[in-house]
Amino acid sequence: MKPSLTDTLCTRCGLCCDGSLFADVELAGRAEATRLEAMGLEIEDEDTNCALLTQPCRALRRARCGVYAHRPECCRTFECRLLQDVRRGAAGVEQAGAIIAEARKRIGRVRELMARLGQHDGRLPLGEICAEALARDPDPLPQVNRKRAELETAMSAVEESIRRTFLDGAGRSHAPRAAGRPG
Ligand code: SF4
Ligand code: SF4
Questions:
Q1: Is 75 in the pocket of ligand 2 (CB under 6 A)?
Q2: Radius of gyration of the chain (CA)
Q3: What does 19-36 look like in DSSP terms, one character per residue?
Q4: Whole-angstrom Cα distance, residue 113 to residue 152?
Q5: Which residues pair with 64 in a beta bridge?
């Protein structure tokens, strides 16, 4: 059987689950949140009607969903811009694979810069860790400030490329898809 597009691409990606694209995702309701909490996932209650699945998602195993058969509705229905482009023939599968690899490389570089600045809390979304690294007061050491400037530039480029490649036209700003990931 031919592998699905999500099997082929999403299993190499995981950016909509690991905190790179989203800080959290909106769940369908309290019942779904309770079910996910029972599986060990981290949920935040926004108000009585809205629960959020925080990212990076605890169910993510490398680029695969560890609760694939039980993933929430938002993950079942989300398709990023890139996946939509491939489906409608605007991009090829190999081309999309290369785009994902390049995005992961750029994000890896941002993470490396943050780690060098002593900022590497893997439990936070990418944007939040980066904002913390950049919010510090200027350092007496010029090389540290240079590293921060490098981080700021690299993160701006990542944000722009994420918006253009994965989010624009994806329909939702707030719901990821973990894709074809047989546990
Ligand atoms: S839906 Fe898009 S961002 Fe999410 S894993 Fe698949 S290719 Fe990556
Ligand atoms: S598909 Fe949903 S539940 Fe699975 S790892 Fe991604 S965000 Fe988590």
A1: yes
A2: 17
A3: TSS-SEEE-S-HHHHHHH
A4: 10
A5: 61
| pLDDT tens figures, 128-162 | 999 999 998 888 989 999 999 999 999 999 999 99
Pairing of strands 24-26, 64-65: unpaired
Which residue has the least CA distance to atom 1 on ligand 2? 178
Whose alpha carbon is nearest atom 7 of ligand 1?
A: 10
Kindly state if the Cβ of 111 falls inside 6 Å of ligand 1. no
> In degrees rounded to 5, what are phi and psi of residue 101?
-60, -40
Q: For the residues of 124-162, what is the DSSP string, one character each?
A: S-HHHHHHHHHHSPPPSSHHHHHHHHHHHHHHHHHHHHH
Tell me the CA–centroid distance for residue 63 and ligand 2, in Å: 10
79 lines ligand 1 (CB under 6 A): yes
Q: What is the identity of the amino acid at 158?
A: V
Residue with token string 């082929």: 8
Residue 129 beta carbon below 6 angstroms from any ligand 2 atom? no
Tell me the CA–centroid distance for residue 177 and ligand 2, in Å. 7
Both ends of the chain: CA-CA distance in Å?
A: 18
Average pLDDT, rounded, for the chain:
89
pTM of the predicted model as reported, rounded to 2 decimal places: 0.89
34-61 pLDDT per residue, tens: 999 999 999 998 776 789 999 999 999 9
